[in-house]
Write a structure and sequence with these properties.
By secondary structure, the protein is of the alpha/beta class. The protein has one domain: 3-Layer(aba) Sandwich (Rossmann fold). The chain is built from 7 helices and 6 strands, in the order E-H-E-H-E-H-H-E-H-E-H-E-H. The chain has a 6-stranded parallel β-sheet with strand order 4-3-2-1-5-6, sandwiched between helices. The longest helix has 18 residues. The radius of gyration is 15 Å and the shape is globular. The relative contact order is 0.19.
Length: about 160
């Protein structure tokens, strides 16, 4: 049996300095793939940062021909778009799942409930939070409050 290292990602819907953020994500993903036996990447699909992260992970995975990781899209609830395009999403991600904790919550609170569940499930949380508002910022505050191991990429890019 091998050990699984779980990493989750959170950022604002819109990404400033897109290329710089993308490069930092790729460097970090490469490092994680080299340091751990198996890495489980938990991602959302709520905005630019989530899509940037998923693309970067898939590029790293392909570049290294890496079988030591998986990319899991964690939905806050079952989405109609997923049901309409199930085959396409299932081919893009290694796994697609609906977060149990948020599946039956009101849609306005479901994303935050899902985010907290992802933090609780993870060994390491990666953020790209540049301003003190929104769901990504709330999730960062939650991760700090529970003592999660975190990095905020914006500290490396926007200083």
């Amino acid at each position: 049996m091998f050990s699984v290292y779980t990493v989750c990602f959170f950022g604002h819907r819109q990404v400033d300095k897109f290329t710089a953020v993308e490069q930092k994500v790729e460097v970090l993903v490469d490092k994680l793939l080299n340091e751990h036996e198996y890495v489980e990447f938990l991602v959302g699909r709520e905005g630019e940062f989530d899509l940037l992260v998923t693309s970067a992970i898939l590029r790293c995975k392909k570049r290294f021909d890496s079988a030591n990781c998986s990319v899991i899209w964690v939905m806050p609830y079952l989405k109609a778009d997923y049901l309409k395009n199930k085959e396409s999403y299932d081919n893009y991600y290694d796994s697609v799942e609906v977060c149990e904790q948020s599946a039956n919550a009101h849609p306005k609170s479901a994303i935050q409930i899902r985010n907290r569940a992802m933090v609780d499930r993870s060994d390491f949380c990666v953020f790209c939070v540049t301003h003190k508002s929104g769901g990504a910022y709330q999730t960062l505050r939650y991760a700090e409050s529970v003592g999660a191991k975190i990095i905020n990429l914006s500290d490396l890019i926007f200083d």
